């Protein structure tokens, strides 16, 4: 097929769309993952294709790349990308230990300790994040191998987690006390003030005086204001109505 | 003829000791001669109805009567009766190997590899676009279905290395190119692309093309083979991706087919069931329980109504098996995400009959619950495969269960997280408002932890659907104002819209039938 030499002319997205079941694009996909990390972009289909190719040829799997893919997937929350990636990674690569047992895990590669404790220090939704961050024990031919210490968290990681934290807050709270918000996004003091100002101007937040501290009123949506929820009990999705179009015509 | 999926491929490998006169590949009984002559003639005449009769009926009858445990005569032996037509012999061989996979056990690697080569040849011919036949949709579906099945079977076969003889291991090494995953995926992908089926379906929506309306058949003198194979290959790709654990891509492969409409996928009941089964399963693994429940409900209702018409067909056992599996999956969906109004009454009754005990257990979220989830999942899940070729050095192990264990593990992990939330559910159901402080007291955790738990509940109950929107799958919800939790219970209301839709379709059906009645 001409795609080998034409690889430079096709973008990686094209390759994945046109010819995904091709072992020759593995290196391109790996390069693309690194690109995603450095340029703070993300492409789920390309990453899934790469994980699939690793499944087909396990000798070519790179633990570094897999770790990068997983962290990028984590940053895509609330999309279920992280779970989707896990389905494709063989058991012996990731040890799905419950994080509460983390002290008893065999060996913690430095990067994932860093991730885990960093995320923990965000001090938010421990139970959520503990369900998402796993200890990552790499066993390679019997010898436990540490992830390359030059591994660092991709740029934008903190912002992505903060965005997700805010998303969850707006599903849950109509009015959230300032200390709770601060804990959730791990920002305090002056930085928090600036953060609040920014969102008050751009995202429709309103800052009020509450019982014990400032209270932030989050924008109304159907999840924190059930009365806004369209009464879906009796409404029928459009696709279902299309079933009777042949009858009506 | 759809092969049963749950067969193990032979136990302790006993080399098939055929007495010299037991199977002679060159002996062609008279009934087979007539069969071949007639089938060849019907295919040349493009007489789809007759082909279908012979394919479904004749082939089955002869297999049962003459070839219960033995293969059909070899292709070379029947060649004289069909003018040695190359394409016809490819089709004949396809039937031959399908029969062999179903009835001959154990099947050697050599046979499997030959079948692979035959499929390659057959698909290559079709892809070149030189085929000028019209074949029944049932046959074309069975071709794709069997292709995927034999691939799955081969992966399972070669992953069980422990008890293989020297001979068998040599054969595996010799035929290491057979059924390689790239080939399988690329053939299906090629069929989808060469047939331009996605464009055809698009154009059909705008009224520029006739495909579904003619059941895929070509009434203008052309051939339906490439188009329909392309269509069914999309379902084949969905199935393979589910076997690999890549649910997202599987659903993408199916995207051109609109499941809310009748389509070519509903014509052959086997393809209808296979599509919905894999679609539902993929959605279940992606935590889209509501969508999965909805589709399972529809198909189970359909099977309930129409299975009596398929009692005589060779696919009947398969239909029943998939029916049971989908009830199990439905039980899982409803236990993880209770819904009040998505299930039809009849389906609900059947579900209660089969799985009421298990569902009560599963919703208790104790240790017994895991056993129940494990059991149902293991019964109902597809036979996951490890696509990479085996490493044939000592020590030899059986690794055919690895893929299944991974998926099961991840699934149970998901169940466990639901368990963590069941405690809070039971409390929240009791109140309409409660302060965070009080609830924290009752649950014996501190406020910060409670807030985390509430957030986790929201996180788990809201997923992203296929359009990127946030969808809630909770049957009751809450919101927090500063320190007070307000619980909102969605009252179960009668959904009139759905009821009217169903009745409209039903009456339309009846009117159609009444109009067909002729009074003499």
From TrEMBL, chain A:
One cellular component term from this protein's GO annotations in UniProt? eukaryotic 48S preinitiation complex
**Protein name, entry field:** Eukaryotic translation initiation factor 3 subunit K
Say if the entry is tagged with keyword Cell inner membrane. Answer: no
Subunit structure, interactors included: Component of the eukaryotic translation initiation factor 3 (eIF-3) complex.
Q: Fetch the InterPro entries from UniProt.
A: ARM-type_fold, eIF3k, Transl_init_fac_sub12_N_euk, WH-like_DNA-bd_sf, WH_DNA-bd_sf
Provide a GO biological process annotation: formation of cytoplasmic translation initiation complex
Entry-linked SUPFAM superfamilies: ARM repeat, Winged helix' DNA-binding domain
User: Could you tell me the keywords of this UniProt record?
Assistant: Cytoplasm, Initiation factor, Protein biosynthesis
Function text:
Component of the eukaryotic translation initiation factor 3 (eIF-3) complex, which is involved in protein synthesis of a specialized repertoire of mRNAs and, together with other initiation factors, stimulates binding of mRNA and methionyl-tRNAi to the 40S ribosome. The eIF-3 complex specifically targets and initiates translation of a subset of mRNAs involved in cell proliferation.
State the source organism's domain of life: Eukaryota
In the record, the note on similarity to other proteins reads: Belongs to the eIF-3 subunit K family.
- MF terms per GO, please? ribosome binding; RNA binding; translation initiation factor activity
- Cellular localisation: Cytoplasm
Automatic annotation (TrEMBL), chain B:
Residues in domain PCI? 295-494
Which cellular component appears as one GO term in the record?
eukaryotic 43S preinitiation complex
The record's keywords, sorted A to Z, are: Cytoplasm, Initiation factor, Protein biosynthesis
Localization per record: Cytoplasm
Q: Where is the composition biased (Basic and acidic residues)?
A: 1-10
Chief location category = cytoplasm
Single GO molecular-function term?
Answer: translation initiation factor activity
Segment Disordered: which positions? 1-24
Quaternary structure (record): Component of the eukaryotic translation initiation factor 3 (eIF-3) complex.
Q: Which HAMAP family match?
A: eIF3l (MF_03011)
Q: What PANTHER family does this protein map onto?
A: EUKARYOTIC TRANSLATION INITIATION FACTOR 3, EUKARYOTIC TRANSLATION INITIATION FACTOR 3 SUBUNIT L
Q: What is this protein called?
A: Eukaryotic translation initiation factor 3 subunit L
**Taxonomic source organism:** Digitaria exilis
